[in-house]
């Protein structure tokens, strides 16, 4: 689902994209690393999480010093983060990409991304964000869940890209951070990559905390 060289995964969908100057690797490139066998926690899997559990943390996203965000969370070994310096061409549903956490050094083709922007309600912000995707959202499953100690909402869905006749699983959660919403997405080159990154996304959700 590539939109350009600067956004890295496909030519049609912003939800999996980065932007010019972000330095993100192109997940469409041939994989250059073997996925690492990352230890996972012993916490029982949530049925909503497709049987996956959080991977073991390696460090706090904020400790990498790359992204100035209203939230932070733990990331696994080898994952790297970069600030996204985007213009309004990359706005989606009123939110702007602010940070991308790259899975490629760990062997997976995809990203966890943080989007931020003014909002009154986390659920509405996430709904508007997904509705503004260049693809079509199919099979959405949404739940309310506490994240970072505040009410949040999470949606698991299939993204259909008519231009390339491709479907792949993705998911996102949203919380309010004062007068802004923060939306955290996980998306890979395909569903296989997404499933490989899902434990890192669950880690982000379970360890998310406000920085303000």
Describe the structure.
By secondary structure, the protein is mainly beta. It has one domain (47-210): Mog1/PsbP, alpha/beta/alpha sandwich (Protein Transport Mog1p, Chain A). It contains 2 helices and 11 strands. The chain has helices at residues 122-131, 191-207, and strands at residues 59-60, 71-72, 74-75, 80-83, 96-102, 110-118, 136-147, 150-161, 166-177, 180-188, 209-210. Strands 4-5-6-10-9-8-7 form a 7-stranded antiparallel beta sheet, with helices on both faces. The protein is globular, with a radius of gyration of 15 Å. The model is unreliable at 1-34 and 36-43 (pLDDT under 50).
Main features:
2 helices; 212 residues; 7-stranded antiparallel beta sheet; 13% helix; Protein Transport Mog1p, Chain A; mainly beta; disordered N terminus
Concise structural overview:
Pfam families: Lipoprotein_23. By secondary structure, the protein is mainly beta.
Present the secondary structure layout.
Elements: E1 59-60, E2 71-72, E3 74-75, E4 80-83, E5 96-102, E6 110-118, H1 122-131, E7 136-147, E8 150-161, E9 166-177, E10 180-188, H2 191-207, E11 209-210
Antiparallel strand pairs: 1-3, 2-11, 4-5, 5-6, 6-10, 7-8, 8-9, 9-10
Estimated share of beta-strand residues = 25-35%
Radius of gyration over all CA atoms, rounded: 15 Å
Write the CATH architecture name. 3-Layer(aba) Sandwich
Oligomerization state: single chain
Order of helices and strands: EEEEEEHEEEEHE
Number of strands: 11
Number of H- or I-type helical stretches: 2
Between the first and last Cα atoms, what is the distance in angstroms? Answer: 34 Å
Structural category is mainly beta
**In percent, how helical is the residue content?**
10-25%
Q: Largest sheet at a glance?
A: 7 strands, antiparallel
Task: Assign an overall shape.
Answer: globular
Please mark out the parts with pLDDT under 50 across 5 or more consecutive residues, or reply none: 1-34, 36-43
Kindly give the count of domains: 1
CATH class type: Alpha Beta
- Strand arrangement, largest sheet? 4-5-6-10-9-8-7
